[in-house]
Amino acid sequence: MKFQENISLARFSSYQIGGPARYFFEAKNIEEIKEALHEAKDKNLKVFILGGGTNLLISDRGFDGLALKPNINFLENKGEKIQAGAGVPVSELLNFTIKKSLSGLEWAGGLPGTVGGAIRGNAGCFKGEIKDSVGNVRSINVKTRKEKKRNFRECGFSYRTSIFKKNDGEEIILSATLLLKKGDAKKIKSEIQKNIEYRKVNHPMEYPSIGSIFKNVATKAVPRVHLASLKDVVKDDPFPIVPAAYLISKAGLKGISLGGAMVSPKHPNFIVNALNATASDVGGLIRLVKEEVKKKFGVELEEEIIEV
After folding, report:
1. Catalytic residue at 264?
2. SS3 for 114?
3. What confidence score (pLDDT) does residue 203 get?
4. Per CATH, which fold does 4-70 belong to?
């Protein structure tokens, strides 16, 4: 097995930001994943698992180890269940649900990234979350190379996280069983398309980005002195929250920039790559936004993205 060397990670990031990986390997099946992990262990390399690159800020320095990109891409269905490889793009999965007339994932219309990434971060929007459809998840331990199958409860899902995210790179998601329901293909397609169109109108699709930077804020985390003035913007998604975008906007940060990075005027929870931004530019804006929102509302914003 031969790893590629000094490969730019920017080309694998929807941000188009990131330095080189010392080593890079794209694995097409589980055996190749195991072989790559074995060789990385022999070389005493740190391993970074690269998915769809849609929720990830990669350092300008790159990664001094092995960037391993699992590309397990298959879709199968039996009745109301879908077996999906972790490398399947969410858009491809949704087209499959339309073809098979299976309902339950319409909320994900327009969601970027892969099935594995969606499960890792418990992706959600429009009052839906991927956890609502997960039956079980197969993964492999990076150190021991042992496979494991977890049922829904063992996946430790909560708001924008799971046991896989909490374990911080200890495991690679291989595949998942999704539990859906029979529906009408036309209605499923219409709902998916509606959500895609909403994103086109309301999200800054004209610039490279990695989606929402910050998690929305649970109302219980907002100081009472501020909560009364925010009650009109509270959303139930999937529990009572104040949108991070609203807090950022009210802190006067729409359109503010640092280097080539900018807080989107269209959706201020997006920090976009407006002009050849670096990871340092984005990181600086993240810190500034957190400081200003804390000053104004007493709220500590928490990043939804992963930084490497």
Report:
1. no
2. strand
3. 96
4. 3.30.43
